[in-house]
Amino acid sequence: MPPTSYSTPPFAPASAGTAGIWQAFKRAAVSQCHPAMLFAVLLPFLIALVGAILLLWFCWTPLTDWLRDEASTWSVVNDVDQWLVAVGLFSLKVYLVPVAAAAILLPVSGILGLAIAAVFVMPLVLRHVSQREYADVGKQGKFGTAVSIWNAGWVSVVFALGWLLTLPLWLVPPMAVLLSIFWWAFAFSRMMRVDAIVEHASPAERRILLRRHNVGFWVLGLLCSLINLLPPAWVFLPVFSALLFAHYGLDALQRLRQEKVIEMTPR
C-alpha cells in the first residue's frame, strides 16, 4: 500500500471553482432560513448595535473635535471650503467632519460584530450544518478556540489600521467605494475561512485548504463585501457569511479527504 498522500489525482479537481462557490451560496441561503440560524442572527447584530451606540456616545464629541482641528490645518480642505462658500454652496467642513467620524466609528462596530460571529457564532453554525450535510466529516482540529480568537484578533487589528490609514484616500473618487469593498473583503475572507475549518481540519489539512482554495475564499469575501454595501444586510450578514464559508470549507475538506482515500487504495 503506498503512503498516504494529498496530491490531487488527475480526475479530482483541486477546487470546485465557481460551481463550488455557487453551491455554497445556495446552501447558505437555505441554512439561513432555519429557525436556529435566524435566532443566531441576533447575537452579532445586537453586539454590533450596542458597540455602535457606545462608540457614538463616548467617542463622537472628542473625535469630531479632533477632526475639526485637524481639518483646519489641511490647506486643500480650507481652499475647497472657501471656494464652496464663495460661490454660495455650502461649507465643506460642516459635512466632512461628521461623515469622517461616522466612517471611522461605524466600521469599528461592524468588525466587532464580525469577530463575535467568527468566534462565538461559527461553532453554532458548524454544529448546525455538519449534523445535516457533513456528518461524515470528522473533527480533527486542534486548539480550535485559541486559533479562532488569535485569527479574529489580528484580522480586526489589521482591518482597523488599514481602514484608518487609507481613509484620506476617500477624498479621491471612487476610492471610497473601492477601499470599503477591499477592506471588508479582506475581513470576511481572512476571518471566516479559518473559523470555517478549524474544528474539523487537522493543521496539515488546514494549510492545504487555505493554499488550494485561497482564490475561492477571496471570492466569497468579495461577495460578502458587496452585499455589505447594502445597510439592511448588516443585520444578517455576519451569520450568513459564517454559513457561506462553513459550507464552502467543509465541502472542500470533504473532497480533500476523498482524495486521501483514493491515494490509499491499492493500485
How would you characterize this protein structure?
It is found in: Membrane. This protein folds into 2 domains: 20-133, no CATH class; 138-261, no CATH class. The protein is built from 10 helices and no strands. Residues 1-15 have low confidence and may be disordered. With 267 residues, the chain is mainly α. Helix 3 (42-71) packs antiparallel against helix 5. Helices cover 76% and strands 0% of the residues.
Key structural traits:
267 residues; mainly alpha; 2 domains; elongated; disordered N terminus
Summarize the structure.
The chain has helices spanning 17-32, 35-40, 42-71, 75-86, 92-133, 144-165, 175-197, 203-212, 214-227, 237-264. It has 10 helices and no strands.
SSE layout and pairing:
Layout: H1 17-32, H2 35-40, H3 42-71, H4 75-86, H5 92-133, H6 144-165, H7 175-197, H8 203-212, H9 214-227, H10 237-264
User: How much is the average pLDDT?
Assistant: 83
Rg, Å, rounded: 22 Å
List how many beta strands DSSP finds.
0
What proportion of the residues form beta strands (DSSP E)?
Answer: under 5%
Instruction: Give the helix tally.
Output: 10
Structural domain count:
2
| Uncertain segments | 1-15
Based on Cα principal axes, name the global outline: elongated
Residue share in helix: over 70%
Characterize the main sheet. Answer: none
Structural class: mainly alpha
Compressed to H and E, one letter per element, the order equals HHHHHHHHHH
Distance between the termini: 8 Å
